[in-house]
Fold this protein.
Amino acid sequence: MSPPRSTVRKRAVSEPVASETAIEIEQLVAAKEVVVACGPGGVGKTTTAAALAATVAARVGGRVLVLTVDPAKRLADALGIGALGNEATRIPTSAFTAVGVRPKGELHAAMLDMSESWDALVRRHAPDAGTAKQILANPLYQNISRRFSQGQDYIAMERLYELHEDGDYDLLVVDTPPSRNALDLLDAPARMQEFFSSRLLHWLTIPYRSRLVNAASRPFYSVADRVLGSQLLQDLADFFILLQTMRDGFVARADAVDRLLRDVRTTFLLVTTLEAVPGREASEMKAALASRKLHLGLLVCNKVLPTSLTDPAAARAADVVAEDAAALSEKLAPALAAKGGSAGSDEEMTPVVVERVLEEVAQSFSNFRQVATREAELLRELSASHDVTAIVPYQAGHITDLAGLLQMGARIWGETPTEPGRAKR
Amino acid sequence: MIDLLSRRLLFVTGKGGVGKTTVAAALGLLAAEQGKRTLVCEVEPKGDLSVAYECGSTPFHGREVSARLTAMSMDTEASLREYLKMIARVPVIGRIGPVAKAFDLVATAAPGVREILTIGKLCFEVRERHYDLVVVDASSTGQVVGQLAAPTGINELVRVGLVRNQTDWMLDILRDRQVTGAVIVTTPEEMPVSEAVDLASRLERETPVGLACVIANRVLPELFSTREELVFDKLSSPRMTTQLAQEAGLDGAAIRSVFASARLAVTIRRDGVAHLDRLRAGIEDSVPLLYLPYLFGRAHGLRAIRQVARSLGEEM
């Protein structure tokens, strides 16, 4: 359990009283140094990670860095990380004050550049500059570092470790790459260790000539040569031999990355929507975190429909409106027409049109009620046992600026912020 | 009328979570109903296809789901085994054990190997005419370009050998627009649409496969005409909702909740329409864009797939 913060920050009179969620989140981030955002694809994970980081920087303070993997272009532009590769940039205080917020801390953002990160890793672990150069120039390496999708998970964790080691930031919020499998991320360091420890790697790197006389491996090579061509195999062998030289460094590093994920200073942020498919994935992810004894500090349910949709009184009202639409429209039409308005409005307000509108309204309610009921069920399932759950209601539009991130942050904090003058479509 | 199903090989792709498996399963069902011998293949075997068809597992060698409809999951190791058996005529199958293990390592390191075995198996089914149509529940936007480009890319890596000799006939199948097409699935949201637009141009530039159509999934119905919306706006006023509550003998707050939900529905729909406009503008005019309605009901498995198949049939 995270220790309570010694001082609760004072709020201005006009601000809403801190919700329980807000207090819990602020305690959580004060006690942690690393927040790993995970969850299914397409649920707003990147935006949530950025919103959390921005809001912590604004309200709690300290140097906060959000490391994103693949932000939507407009969000990246808003954070000033468009094409800067691995370099972190600070979002200036003026960007906060421009939207009426005086931040207590600093917000920094960085994007994860896959190939640059791989290259850095090779340079670090290669025994000498010459080997590093050979690896970097190897065509197989170039293909892998740019296309090896499972490697992304490892690189994200590796970068996180490096940033944590540097100790430049009080809180690191890391967004994770969309995985085919949500668990890939958690197993990435272990897989890297396994890769380097495997006998097969050793076997493949036996010098090429001795292979031809090695009885055990001959069937494999004769098949592989015929299928893939000996050139590819030769390239592969060269590549693996080069990789072997980095083995110790890689294994030690993967081990350290794994330890950081399990560290008491690290917590996981699980982001999901309450739709069927992402919900199922999130629930598997949650179980996976628990079975690995990893700390799930915060569950954010995004794009959630309003609870009023599941209110039985509203459901009854919708039923009555649907049933009595004809009679009600007769009674309402005159009052609507009397309200005046644009020319020809009298004609528009005929009972027939009003009746159809009432029917549509009632129908739409019961449609969305079905969805909201499913969401409520899933929420009950997901939030059964975890530290903090934040519900972010459905919002039209897409967050593309700091104001939007802070607004989302306020919702995560459990507040209902007043809409600032955001441009209407 | 869109003759999507007259092709022989369809790759259904799109951002994760937009309903690729649902669309692929529905396309397969529709084709089988039209009398075509159809194979639906899940490239990333997460089991979604067996959930969609409610048919238990979908093994590499296929499971008959209904008349003329077979479902399978891709397994690159099994594909290698099949390939070695048939094409390379490797005599001793028992010896493949270590090959399969080593294969995993090689395939991880040598990009294109896994992809070529996936594409190869699919093209093989098309070439051998085991089926009239092969529908592929393909990888998501991140990986599908690499997969489809593999036959071209492998030529750069593998200079000799059987794999290299095999890529030419695959390319003949993939390049032919009458035979092969990609179907991009998206939803009316920011990121799925952006990825769909981006993928559409990458497919054309980087792969031999042409874009056959784009399907916008989970499109909300339009609630009101312009005229009705005007009425709705007026009805939503506090005065009118109060009057409505009185006339109907209902609680004012309950009525306002009902109207608020309709307002939300209008907002979500409008938001989606803006993204759909962006989608239409972002893809070639010649590429058809189909719409599938949002399913509000609790529809799972085959029931949902049938609903989607029906909508697809109507759209085509």
User: Anything to note?
Assistant: Residues 1-14, 419-425 of chain A have pLDDT under 50 and may be disordered.
